[in-house]
Amino acid sequence: MKKYFFIVVAGLCFCLGLMFVIVPGPSLIFFIAGLFLLSFYYPKARDYLSHCQRLLKVSCQQLDKFFKR
């Protein structure tokens, strides 16, 4: 029962993320939240989550360098 709840909430997060891609909003936060919920039960989602976290870290470092100039 708990697993299905996580899957439904993760699906909702992904749908909200897709909606916010079209309409301005925090789409990245919802995608990462959905991956986080799915990573409890699916190892592939855990891999995608760590990949997204690495990319987000790199992009934030690049933005910091850009704004530091």
From TrEMBL:
Q: Which residues cross the membrane?
A: 5-22
**Keywords (A to Z) from UniProt:** Membrane, Transmembrane, Transmembrane helix
Q: Which InterPro entries match?
A: Uncharacterised_PGPGW_TM
Q: Name one Pfam family in it.
A: PGPGW
**Superkingdom, taxonomy of origin:** Bacteria
Instruction: Please state what the protein is called.
Output: Tellurium resistance protein TerC
